[in-house]
Design a protein that fits this description.
Elements lengths: L1 E5 L4 H13 L4 E6 L17 E5 L5 H9 L3 E4 L6 H6 L2 H21 L2 E7 L25 H20 L3 E6 L2 E2 L8 H10 L5 E3 L5 E3 L1 E2 H14 L5 E4 L4 E3 H11 L8 E3 L14 H7 L8 H14 L1 H17 L3
Parallel strand pairs: 1-2, 1-4, 2-3, 4-5, 5-6, 6-11, 7-10, 8-13
Antiparallel strand pairs: 9-12
Helix pairs in contact: 1-7, 2-4, 4-5, 6-8, 6-10
Bound molecules: nicotinamide-adenine-dinucleotide and thymidine-5'-diphospho-beta-D-xylose.
The site of nicotinamide-adenine-dinucleotide has 31 residues, from α1, α4 and β5.
Length: 331
C-alpha cells in the first residue's frame, strides 16, 4: 500500500510511521508535514531512508492534489493540537484543522483514494465526574474549546463528503495519548521534563479533571485496524479504559521519578477546562477485535519517563520557550 501520512513528524504521526516501517515493510510511506513548532524531523531520525518526506502544508491544494493522486490511502494526523494555544490564537486551528482538512477531502474526492480521519474525543465535550456513561459513537457533538470545535468541524466535513460525494472514509475519535515523541507543551511530558530540569510540576486548578489515557502505540494499532477492516462512513471510538485524574498522574510521575508525590505546584486553571473524558470502545473491540496492549498505566508511564530521560536532545531545545509561554499565562 502506498500511504500518505499527514502530520507524520508530530507525536502520534511519527509513532505511526515508525510502526509502519517496523511492522508493514510492504507499505510505502510518504509523510506530508509543515514542520510547525510541533513537528520535527528528529522524530523520524533513523528511518529517513525508509520513507519519503515532503515538507508542506495540507492547505496547499496543488501540493496535496499531486501527493494524493499518487497514493492508495491517506491517514490524516496533521493538526494544531494544543488546547492552551487555541485559547490564545484560534486562527491556526481554523486554518489547519478546517481548511486543511477541506483541502485534503477535495483531493480524496477527485482521486477516489481511501481516507482515514484521526480525531479526538474532545468533540463530545465533557462528562460529570459521577456520570456513569461514557462517550459512544452516538454521543452528540458538544465541543468546548477553539481546538475541539475545529476538530468537530473537520469531522463534520468528512461525514458530509462521505454522504454527498461517496468518498471512502473512516473516522476515529481517540482519548488522551501518552508515549515517546510527545511535545513538552503537553501535560505528561511537561511534568516529566520539569522534574528532569529541577522544576516543580504544574497542575491546573485542583487537578480533579479526568483524562482517559491510552498509549500511542495502542491508538495507532487501532488506526491500522480501522484502515484495513473498518467500514466506510463509520466512526470508531478508540480508548483503553484508562481514566485517571490529573492529580493522580502528577503524583505517580513524581513517585516513579523518586520524588515526594506532593512536590508540585497548583497553577491557574485552563479557561473552560473540560472536566472529564471517557471512551466506550466496545464497537472497536467487538467488531474489529482490537484490544490495547498497554494495560498497566504505571508501566507505560515508567517507559515514557525513561524515554524522556534518555532522549534529552530531542526535547531540550523546546523546553525553555514552552515554559516561558506558560509563565506569561500564569500556568
Ligand atoms: P502534534 O501537534 O504532536 O503533531 C501535529 C503535526 O502536524 C506536527 O508535526 C505539525 O508540524 C503538523 N502540522 C500542523 N499544521 C500543519 C499543516 N498546516 N500542514 C501540514 N502539517 C501540519 O499532534 P498529535 O498529538 O500528534 O495529534 C495528531 C492528531 O491526533 C491530531 O489530529 C489530533 O487532533 C489527534 N488526537 C490527538 C490526541 C492526543 O492525545 N495527542 C488524542 C486524540 C486525537
Ligand atoms: O501543565 C499542565 N498542567 C495540567 O494540569 C498541562 C499542560 C495540562 N494540565 C491538564 C489539562 C488537562 O486536564 O492536564 C490535562 C491534559 O492536558 P493536555 O496534555 O493539554 O491535553 P488535553 O487538553 O486533554 O488534550 C489532549 O488530548 C486530546 C491533546 O492535547 C489533544 O490534541 C487531544 O485531542
Amino acid at each position: 500500500m502506498r500511504i500518505l501520512v499527514t502530520g507524520g513528524a508530530g507525536f502520534i504521526g511519527s509513532n505511526f510511521v515508525r510502526a509502519a516501517v517496523r511492522e508493514r515493510p510492504d507499505s510505502r510511506v510518504t509523510v506530508l508535514d509543515a514542520l510547525t513548532y510541533a513537528g520535527s524531523r528528529d522524530s523520524l531520525r533513523g528511518i529517513d531512508d525508509k520513507i519519503e518526506f515532503v515538507e508542506g502544508d495540507i492547505a496547499d491544494s496543488a501540493l496535496v492534489d499531486s501527493l494524493v493522486s499518487g497514493c492508495d490511502a491517506v491517514v490524516h494526523f496533521a493538526a494544531e493540537s494544543h488546547n492552551d494555544n487555541s485559547l490564545i490564537d484560534p486562527w491556526p486551528f481554523v486554518r489547519t484543522n478546517i481548511i486543511g482538512t477541506y483541502t485534503l477531502l477535495q483531493a480524496i474526492r477527485e482521486h477516489g483514494v481511501r481516507y482515514h480521519h484521526v480525531s479526538t474525543d474532545e468533540v463530545y465535550g465533557d462528562l460529570e465526574l459521577d456520570d456513569p456513561t461514557k462517550f459512544t459513537e452516538h454521543t452528540a457533538y458538544n465541543p468546548s474549546s477553539p481546538y475541539s470545535s475545529t476538530k468537530a468541524a473537520s469531522d463534520m466535513l468528512v461525514r458530509a463528503w462521505v454522504r454527498s460525494y461517496g468518498i471512502r472514509a473512516t473516522l476515529s475519535n481517540c482519548s488522551n495519548n501518552y508515549g515517546p515523541y510527545q511535545h513538552v507543551e503537553k501535560f505528561i511530558p511537561r511534568q516529566i521534563t520539569n522534574v528532569l530540569t529541577g522544576v516543580r510540576p504544574k497542575l491546573y486548578g485542583a487537578g480533579l479533571n479526568v483524562r482517559d489515557w491510552i498509549h500511542v502505540d495502542d491508538h495507532n494499532a487501532a488506526v491500522w485496524k480501522i484502515l484495513e477492516e473498518g467500514q466506510t462512513g463509520r466512526t470508531y471510538l478508540i480508548g483503553a479504559d484508562g481514566e485517571l485524574d490529573n492529580l493522580t498522574v502528577v503524583r505517580t510521575i513524581l513517585e516513579l521519578m523518586g520524588h515526594d508525590p506532593d512536590d508540585f505546584d497548583h497553577v491557574k486553571d485552563r479557561a473552560g477546562h473540560d472536566l472529564r473524558y471517557a471512551i466506550d470502545a466496545s464497537t472497536l473491540r467487538d467488531e474489529l477485535g482490537w484490544s490495547p496492549r498497554y494495560n498497566d498505566f504505571r508501566e507505560g508511564l515508567q517507559a515514557t519517563i525513561d524515554w524522556y530521560r534518555d532522549n534529552r536532545a530531542w526535547w531540550e531545545k523546546n523546553k525553555d520557550a514552552v515554559e516561558m509561554r506558560y509563565e506569561t499565562q500564569g500556568a
